[in-house]
Amino acid sequence: MDNQRNILVIGTGHLADMTTEKLKNAGFLVGRIKSKTFQFNEDSDIQEESLTYAEEKLKEGGVQSAVAACIVDNDDAVNMHIMLATMRVRIDMPVFVSLLNDTLSSCAGTFDHEQVRVINPTILATPVFIRALTERISRPVRRLHTKNVELTPLPRRPKLIYVTFALIFAIMSIDILFFVLTEPGMTILKAYYFFVGEVTSFSFNDVSVVNYDPVVYFFRTTLLWATFSVVPIGIGIIAAATWSYFNEVRLHGRRRYHLKNHVVICGLGNLGHHLVTELRRQNRKILVIEQSMESPFIDAARTLGAKVMIADATLQHVLENAAIHKAEALISAVDDDDRNLIIGLNARALQPDIRLILRIFDGDKAKEIRDRFDIQFAYSMSDITSDRIVDDITKLSVVAA
Q1: Cβ distance 319 to 339 under 8 Å?
Q2: Range(s) within the chain of domains with CATH label 1.10.287
């Protein structure tokens, strides 16, 4: 009977730890092989080692006596490497493999090996987070005894750009007035034409200069120098300000949003991307805050119709600009428990009634956060995935018995 309950857990990280613990609590005999076991030396990459070396380590770890193996490392490449080695050693054994990458998980599921069960933690967790948006809150949120937080005013645009516009306009006005007063038969339209000619070329043949007093020559020369020195520089300043606006607002999305009843999603990793995709499918208004411009999902989120702001969601003014005070809910799914908690607490300070849904790696920590900080929903992807693995293995064990 004991042989029917030998399970081998392979990997390092939260998911491997929680899977091991829950299998033991379910009455299984669990063997554990950590990922570093498959390294030939400390400096080598596991996926670069030979499959033969991995097979030897699997045999040493007891793979031949196990009834199932759970390959649940944090690194997809490591899981793929160990999965291939496991399939070569035990083609008859059920193998549960965790793969976060959508493409990898879908491709691995088509392998010619009926015993391989691919589990994508992100796909498992997404419906749980989505349900939390409409799930009934069992207890009211305790009100924080703090002063009302006023919105931080948006930074004003640099005064230099307004001064530049004013200076260019003043020089143009003086130039036009000068031409009208000193050139015979000059009209305002012709004077404006001559001004544009001064700015855009070095040829002034259109201007007839005759019978000028020395004072007029001096004044005209001064105007020419002012035009050539100030206007091009001013145009450069305006161009730089325009690019800065485009970079900040269009590319990085850094502005104050006027949204209402929307969902703010912090973090655009695998989970954030799945949440955006599903919520946009439901036609919900979404604003994403992602710290890194390098996220591969930014263009996809914008294509789906979500607003994306490249900024640090732990900063209060960033949440203010995201219209958190009018948001329906905030989902924080960055890859750091403490940052998720900070984001949630800042959002609560700005909007006491907001529905908070946090991603927390450790299941016990998620429970503590819900209780201690009065966060309505805190979920661990590792907790959700390990529950699924244990449930599937339990069903498999019952069938085998």
Answers
A1: no
A2: 159-251
- What are the start and end residues of each CATH 3.40.50.720 domain in the chain? 2-119+387-400, 129-152+256-359
CA distance 230 to 171: 9
Considering all CA atoms of the chain, what is the largest pairwise distance in Å, rounded to the nearest integer? 117
The DSSP call for residue 37 is G
Show the tokens assigned to 144.
């924080």
Q: What is the Cβ-side half-sphere exposure of residue 297, based on CA atoms within 13 angstroms?
A: 22
Which amino acid does the sequence have at 301? A
- Report the interhelical angle of 76-89 vs 51-60 (nearest 10°): 70
What are 48-103's pLDDT values in tens digits? 557 888 899 999 999 999 999 999 999 998 998 899 899 889 888 999 999 988 87
Dist CA 326 CA 303 (whole Å):
24
Look up residue 249 and give its amino acid: V
> Quick check: helix, strand or coil at residue 122?
helix
**Could you give the strand order of the β-sheet that contains 263-266, starting from the edge strand earlier in sequence?**
307-310, 286-290, 263-266, 329-332, 355-359, 377-379
C-alpha–C-alpha distance, residues 214 and 9, integer Å: 95
pLDDT computed for residue 371 by the predictor: 78
Pairing mode, strands 307-310 and 68-71: unpaired
For domain 2-119+387-400, give the fold. Rossmann fold (3.40.50)
